[in-house]
Each structure stands twice: as structure tokens, then as C-alpha cells.
Amino acid sequence: MINPALLREFQTVLGAENVFTDQADLLTYSYDAAVLAAVVPALALRPVDSESLSRVVRLCNENQLPLTVRGAGTNLSGGTIPIRGGVVLLTNALDKILEINSEDMYAIVQPGVVTAKLAAAVEAKGLFYPPDPGSQAVSTLGGNVAENAGGLRGLKYGVTRDYVMGLQFFNAEGESIKTGSKTVKCATGYNLAGLLVGSEGTLGVFNEITLKLIPPPARQKAMFAVFNDMDRASETVAAVIAHRIVPATLEFMDNFTIRAVEDFSRAGLPVDAAALLLIEVDGHPAQVEEDAGKVEYLCRKIGADSIRVAKDAAERDKVWAARRSALSALAKLKPTVVLEDATVPRSKIPEMVRAIQDISKQCDISIGTFGHAGDGNLHPTILTDRRDKEEWERVEAAIETIFDKALSLGGTLSGEHGTGIAKSCFLEKETGLATIRYSRRIKAAMDPNNILNPEKIIGYSNTR
Questions:
Q1: Secondary structure element (H or E) that encloses residue 121, with its range
Q2: Partners of 281 in beta bridges
Q3: DSSP-assigned letters across all residues of 322-387
């Protein structure tokens, strides 16, 4: 229960229309895309400018109210599930693109700007913002930075952290902190931006984000390689990377996923294929032709049954849209969908794909596998019904086995979905206890009242 005097102060700062206390509204902000128990906050607040954002953070700290920042809530690790009795801070009114600088190739945005909106705006100016998470049509840039979001183009172009030039954020006391610059080089002070990217709202609240832009590729060429043997498809992924070819995208879909996506999108995917590789090369026209030729040669050599090159941009876009719909397509099949994020060194992709197949059989559960195979980031997607307790126990066992296998291959618990509360209990397996203690000391120094998204990343709460 929020103190009535404090509630009135929030209303004075934000306007009554931006303070939400109705249970129906609050239920909307009680969960995210992870399969975790919902937690209804005490209230939700929607700042409309920098000043009100700063004042809200300060008030929460003074009153020791847990504060969870929420963009679109598309994250998959429980990072935006609030703490009981806490506050959800909404960024959807902080949605302005403040500047697009074509000469120096950067953009400055507020945290509530939708990713696809920025991508379209910079494209209209002849520039390119590469990070493209699967949720880009609705996800916000503040959330992308908080989770260090990746995407289909991560193989060649990197992830969100590679494009963050600077941040202006508020610390737990509501003070304005600046880090980074509009310049290509900046070695001033501590690299606080590097610390804040991927921190999931536990160390500060973003107000303005400066992002690097680059020139768009001169040409693109997309192809779709069909395999009747899944091992050969995964081996082709490893071979392409081993031959020093770096496609813009190199995506993998198994038969289970292909069928679901085709039923969902009607994109003309080969439903009888054991696996499908979706590959795109881009860059200078001559380089594109050379790389495309090498990729096609490797696909055929290792065992592709057929290769289709997109005849035009419309066909290319149709297939990529189908790939982006993979999670939505799989989600139609069962009441509960668990999208995992096991990531391994790229040479280990064949072994990880085989392991996921074996785990599916051993645990007697349905797993569709797709993902950014070119950078080792697979998304084994478990289809289940959480109400079936016996099956859910097998799902939990499968998840832990997938994590253990990824770590044994030199991989990581999460390539792009973050830690949140879904994976915090597994973190010690990857980093060791000393790393967690070190991280907790950083958190305690920057947020002594522990109001900024508590229990995320370095906590042990497991609410699966």
C-alpha cells in the first residue's frame, strides 16, 4: 500500500492521468514475456519529461520503494516483473527521437522510442541502425540497451552494446549522470556506458541514449538452403564461419519450426525439409557475389538438397518476415511456450543441435529449434502446458540440462535475452560465486537502498 501523501506527490509531479492505481491497469504491468509468476505492482507511473523522470526516481529512493522500469515488456527473462509493493515506471511517453545527425552519423533518442521507428527514420536519411531484435516492431530502445538486445544481424554487425556511444541516466538518487560522447573516440573517465548496457535497470534509469549509425550496405543477396539432414545443416553453419565468411545473417530452423512458421505465415517454406538455413550476404556488389558464391558452394558440398536465391526484395522480405514470426508461430501450438537462449562457440553448433534433439527425447517434450546459428545463438523453444505439473517438472529438467550442455561447450546461459530472475539462480554455474559477490558490491555502491529493479541478475530468486 502506497502512503496517501506520497501518492498525492506523485500525482503532483506527473499529473493524475499518469499515475495508475486501478488493479486492471496494474495487471498489465505484472508480467513480461518470460514464463514466470506475475507480480502486481503497487502502482505504475508514466513520466513525460526528464524533470519528472528524475523526481520520480528520487521520490522512490527517499521512500525506499522498489522501482522497475518497463518499456514494452517483451523481454524474456523476467527483467520487467516488478517487486511486490513496488512501482513500475513506464517509458512509453518518453518516445522522442531527439536528433539524427547525418554528418557525424549518430542519433539521440529517449528510452521509449520503438526500435523499428528509429530504424525507419535513419533509413529515410540514408543511414543504417543494424541491431534488429525479433521484437523490434514493439520493443523500445531503452529496453534494448538494458538487455543488450541482439537480433538476426548480430553475426556481422554486432549487438546493441556495439552501437551505444553515450548515455545520460539518473542514478538511484535521481541525479543526472553522463557517460560517453558524440565522438567516435571517448576515453574520458570510467566506461559507465559499458557497465549500464545489459544491466537490466539495476544500476540506473536511462533518460537519453546516443547511438552510432553506419552507412547502409550497397547490395544484399539472400538465399535459402534446404537440407534433408539436420546434422549437415548445422555442420554447414560451422563450415561457413570456418572459411572466414561473415554473412549479415545466418539463421537456422528445424523441421518442427519450419512447419509451424509455414502454417502461420504461408511464406512457401519447404515443410518436408529437416532443416533450413536462411542466409544473407551484403556489402560491396563484388564482395556480395564472391561471398554468395562461396556460401552456395559450401552448402552444396556439405549436403544441401536445394538452394533458392531470392529473386527480388519482396521475396527476400517475405521469408525474413516469416523467420521473425517463428516465436508467434510456435506459441499457437501449446498453452505455454518457453523460449530459451543457449549460446555456444560457433564451431560447437552441430553438437549443441544434436544435444537439444537428445534432450527433447529424453525428457519427452516438444522442442522447436531456431535461431542465429551464425553467431552460435540458438533458441530451443519448449512447447508445453504449465498446468501439467508432471510435464512441467520435465521441462525444468530439460532447461537445466540445456544450460549445462551449453556451458560444457564453452558457451553462455544467455546470448541476448538477459539474466533477469529466470536465470539468476544458474548464474554461479557460469561466472562463479566470487563474480556474483563482486557484482553485488558494485550494485550496493551505486544503489545503497536497493530500489533499482532489485532481485534481478545477481539475486537467487527462482520463480519458475
A1: helix 115-123
A2: 221
A3: HHHTHHHHHHTTSSEEEE---B--GGGHHHHHHHHHHHHHHHT-EEEEEEEGGGTEEEEEEEE-TT
Which residues have a Cβ under 8 Å from the Cβ of 310 and sit 6 or more positions away? Answer: 221, 222, 223, 224, 316, 319
- Indicate whether this model's pTM tops 0.90: yes
Give the model's pLDDT for residue 462: 37
Instruction: For CATH 3.40.462.10, list the domain ranges present in the chain.
Output: 219-408
Residue 342's pLDDT is 86
One-letter amino acid at 306 equals S
Q: What is the pLDDT of residue 464?
A: 36
β-sheet with 106-109: strand ranges across: 97-101, 106-109, 205-212, 164-170, 176-180
**Average pLDDT of adjacent 10-residue blocks, the chain of 464 residues:** 93 98 96 94 98 98 97 95 96 98 98 98 98 94 97 95 98 98 94 97 98 97 95 95 95 95 92 96 96 96 95 88 90 93 93 96 96 93 96 97 97 94 95 96 96 90 37
Radius of gyration, alpha carbons of the chain:
22
pLDDT at 463: 37
Pick the CATH number of 219-408 from 3.40.462.10, 3.40.50.12780, 1.10.8.60, 3.30.230.10: 3.40.462.10
**Which residue is associated with the grid cell 556460401?**
295
Q: How many helices (H) and strands (E) does the chain have?
A: 16, 16
Q: Is the four-CA dihedral 259, 73, 118, 95 of positive or negative sign?
A: positive
- The Cβ of residue 186 has, within 10 Å, a number of other Cβ atoms equal to 14
**pLDDT value of position 313:** 87
CATH 3.30.465.10 domain range(s) in the chain = 97-212
**Phi then psi dihedrals of residue 370, to 5 deg:** -145, 175
Cβ–Cβ < 8 Å for 141, 96: no
CA 62/CA 178 separation, integer angstroms = 22
For residue 292, which amino acid is it? A
DSSP H or E segment with residue 266: none
pLDDT, residue 461, reads 38
Residue 394 contacts residue 400 (beta carbons within 8 Å): no
Axis-axis angle for helices 285-302, 230-242 (nearest 10):
140
Question: Hey, what CATH topology would domain 4-90 get?
Answer: 3.30.43
- Residues 97-212, CATH architecture: 2-Layer Sandwich (3.30)
